[in-house]
Amino acid sequence: MGRELFSKETVAGCAASLNIPNLSNAAIADVLNVAVTLEARTGIPFIRMDQGIPGLPASRIGVEAEKKALDEGVANKYPPQAGLPALKSAASRFVKAFLDVDVSPQSCIPGVGSASISFAAFAITTQLDPRKDTVLFIDPGFPVQKAQLNILGIKHLSFDVYAYRGEALREKLEECLSTGRIASLIYSNPDNPAWISFTEDELHIIGELADKYGVIVLEDLAYFCMDSRSDFSQPFKAPYPPTVARYTDNYILMLSASKMFSYAGQRLGLACISDRLASRHFPALAARYADSGIFAQTYASSILYTISAGTAFSTQYAMAAMMEAACDGVYGFVSDNREYARRAELMKAAFLKNCFHIVYDEDCGRPIGDGFFFSVGYGKMTGAELMEELLHYGISSISLSTTGSEREGIRACVSKMTGDMFPLLEERLEAFAADHPQVSQA
Amino acid sequence: MGRELFSKETVAGCAASLNIPNLSNAAIADVLNVAVTLEARTGIPFIRMDQGIPGLPASRIGVEAEKKALDEGVANKYPPQAGLPALKSAASRFVKAFLDVDVSPQSCIPGVGSASISFAAFAITTQLDPRKDTVLFIDPGFPVQKAQLNILGIKHLSFDVYAYRGEALREKLEECLSTGRIASLIYSNPDNPAWISFTEDELHIIGELADKYGVIVLEDLAYFCMDSRSDFSQPFKAPYPPTVARYTDNYILMLSASKMFSYAGQRLGLACISDRLASRHFPALAARYADSGIFAQTYASSILYTISAGTAFSTQYAMAAMMEAACDGVYGFVSDNREYARRAELMKAAFLKNCFHIVYDEDCGRPIGDGFFFSVGYGKMTGAELMEELLHYGISSISLSTTGSEREGIRACVSKMTGDMFPLLEERLEAFAADHPQVSQA
Questions:
Q1: For B343-359, what is the mean pLDDT?
Q2: Is the pLDDT of residue B19 over 90?
Q3: Closest residue by Cα to residue B29 from B51, B14, B12
Q4: Looking at chain A, which residue has its C-alpha nearest residue B126?
Q5: CB–CB of B113 and A54 under 8 A?
Q6: How far is A47 from A432, CA to CA, in rounded Å?
Q7: Most buried of A146, A439, B262, B351, CB within 10 angstroms?
Q8: Chain A partners of B150 at a C-beta cutoff of 8 Å?
């Protein structure tokens, strides 16, 4: 102890002034608020590893397309219910180019970021069959998605996948799905927060059991093509990222402009629904919404569009332009995003040098790649303790305990680490390690 | 009969091909689809009175501010949870300038159009007290809002206000609110679809009873300052539009860029919450969301932001610029929107000349003004019959029966009527009237 930048009183006082009742298990937004407020009050900059926010400028292609659409007068027109046709076509082409999966344009539906896509997906998937009222999270996961269920009053089940990789996943999923209560299951690949990625074998298991139990898989691809272990940069060329879409027709792929194209501010996500699911008729939907009951129509019109009347029209043009440019090979978003892997490599080295360890470290024997996030632990500290303690050293993060993980550690986001901050990070980690000597274990 | 532009078979076949199960009670989007599809198939243009879409170009001030924000690089940043500070200040100033109501910036929260504002408001107001689980609609109203409740599984009560104007409103509201089940009540002023407006006396009654029964009033101001009977065009000068905010602290005012600034495409609405309600602590919210339980914080962060992570960042700059310009008196949105009143006057004359009648025709003895909508009926036809029959004459509208009205008629939206279409409207109405002679009543 003794090398802290912020005293216990300062941090606790700041949290109290922001009405944050329980700092150690605080949500991302609350940690962010504490960091920003402490920075403003003291002038001492934080190492901000909390929020997963793009660390690269927005795609210029998107910005120019958006300005052009505004100049052409789209701002006074409600967007079409199922989305701009040019965007739907671009999304279909993009999924083919970068996943080698066929989804027709009409099954690609834009929303207000991936957030609204998952929100509407949670609603619709739990309204298909009264017995199936629960969402299964393969954790660790993105806490906001569970918060969405809380608004809707939908139940969830979850398990930490750490102990259930490879064939062990089958038994665990059987246990959950055989209850007959699971409407949909969700995970992200690569994973937020742990940066693990399911292997093709694991996705095969998920797809097989989704079919067996009639469960819809929500595959969150927010960090699409950001696993540094393979080169996914060439459109229409292997290798392709792993996806459950190869193993089942019960899927909704969730794509987002936020990290992929550094376009988080404009709120554009896409549901790419398997054509078979998209065109399927559900009597329960027709009855509830007095509509056609066709999955994609109900999803787009009776749910997504009813909640917000679409997402910004000019941004739909931007997303179409970015996706087409990526497919044409003139916008190298995959290469651009390699910058995050470079930052992760340096940051992980700094943590490891100071006696931290990577918590989720491998995919069935293969070390995880570098990318947007990684997870670290320290000795026997709990994640909540570590998160709160690091705040005193000017490092903000979130506890893995808030992500459904049963492992102790924190999530570190690399995106805001620019070159000049690495010496600061090293210095603070050294101070932390010096203040917290690890007792060697017998 | 005999003068139709589209045969029964053509219209019915079109509806069937669009999976519309029940055309006569079709939702706005379905009627719109039928009209657009028939136009495309036959080349015959429709008189489109269906969707309430801006008929004026988007505010140039908004477009320029949005492009500037994009150039300055906002697209890669998540918007702040409670909204852009400059927008919050502008909204506060705007409410003062055009309503003479004081709401502080922190109580003004942007969302993805008024749609998301009402969606989140329905959620939060029914989560404050387990006994209060129902929303009351003072109808006729906007059908999409009831569709939103359907997604959330929230109950509603409603009544057609036609027979309960003036003091009669008190007794009817007492009857509804004294059940103890009403969490919030909603109406629009001026009203979509009927263009009636509550008087100050009626709003006084609503405010008084909201306080008596602890009910939150959701005042939808989508057609703000569009009642042609008064000149609301001068900022910070009387007269001001009537508002319940003068009579209770239990309110959320819903403002929207869509019609007011002809900015529907970019999806920007605002909740302006009374400061007293905004800062009130609700234990049920704190328990459900594990947050502060302070109304405006839970509304903004745990609900609205959780659903979509904000609304397009550049559009928040646009809205701030438009509101400030309106307050400065350099953007005359009220005068611009007078164009709708001119169109309404001409259209109403054409309908009346052909034996139609205005259904909702007065506010407590005072004839309603001209504006974005009006309601018309024809002889003893039901609204559903009239809507469907007019489709055959190339005129699309929605039946009042879909808006919670107990009167027979249709809603006519004036916004798409440009000068060249008036002769067409007259011609078609004449054909309709000739085909449907009214039996004079004894």
A1: 97
A2: no
A3: B51
A4: A151
A5: no
A6: 13
A7: B262
A8: 288-289, 302
Half-sphere exposure of A169 (CA within 13 A, CB side): 23
DSSP A299: I
**Do A115 and B22 make contact, defined as CB atoms within 8 angstroms?**
no
HSE, CB side, 13 Å, CA atoms: give it for residue B52: 24
SS3 A36: helix
Alpha helical stretches, state H, A100-228: 113-125, 143-152, 168-177, 200-213
What is the pLDDT, as a whole number, of residue B442?
A: 42
What are the tokens at A177? 């799905």
Q: Which residue in the block uniquely carries the two structure tokens 């009214």?
A: B438
Residue B212, CA distances (Å) to B75, B132, B170, B178, B219 in order: 46, 14, 12, 9, 18
Residue A431 distance to chain B (closest CA, Å): 31
Q: Is B398 helix (H, G, I), strand (E, B) or coil?
A: strand
User: ∠ at Cα B183 (B181, B187), nearest 5°?
Assistant: 115
Residue at B251: amino acid letter = Y
CA distance B193 to chain A (A): 18
Tokens of B137: 């609609």
Residue B184 has pLDDT above 70, yes or no: yes
A165 vs A181: CA distance, rounded Å:
23
pLDDT of amino acid B30: 87
Of A119, A264, A301, the CB nearest to B77: A264
Report yes or no: A117 and A111 within 8 Å, Cβ to Cβ: yes
Mode of pairing for the β-strands spanning B155-160 and B356-358: unpaired
Domains, in order of start, for chain A:
8-56+338-435 (3.90.1150.100), 60-327 (3.40.640.10)
Residues in chain B closer than 8 A to A301 (CB atoms): 29
The stretch A387-411 carries a mean pLDDT of 96
**Is 50 exceeded by the pLDDT of residue B56?**
yes
Tell me which residue has tokens 């989804």: A103
At B132, which helix (H) or strand (E)?
Answer: none
**A390: DSSP letter:** H
Yes or no, beta carbons of A289 and B51 under 8 Å apart: no
Contact: B62, A75; criterion CB under 8 Å: yes
Across the interface, whether the CB atoms of A308 and B56 are under 8 A apart is answered no
A147, B289: Cβ pair inside 8 Å? Answer: yes
Residues of A in contact with B62 (CB under 8 A): 75
With beta carbons less than 8 A apart as the criterion, state whether A259 and A225 touch.
no
- Give the whole-angstrom CA distance, residue A116 versus residue A93: 22
The shortest C-alpha distance from A430 to chain B (Å) reads 31
B-chain residues within 8 Å CB-CB of A322?
Answer: none
How far, in Å, CA of B225 to CA of B327, rounded?
Answer: 14
Beta-bridge partners for B135: B156, B184
Range B3-13 average pLDDT: 93
Q: What is the pLDDT of residue B22?
A: 83
Confirm if B180 and B131 have CB atoms less than 8 A apart: yes
Instruction: Record the tokens describing residue A423, joined without a space.
Output: 């010496």
A441 pLDDT more than 70 = no
On whether the CB atoms of residues A19 and A407 are closer than 8 A, the answer is no
Tell me A244's DSSP state: G
Looking at B27-31, B164-168, B330-334, which range is the least confident one? B27-31
The shortest CB-CB distance from B308 to any of A70, A115, A305 is to A115
Residues in chain B closer than 8 A to A62 (CB atoms): 75
Nearest alpha carbon to residue B315 among B104, B76, B67, B4: B67
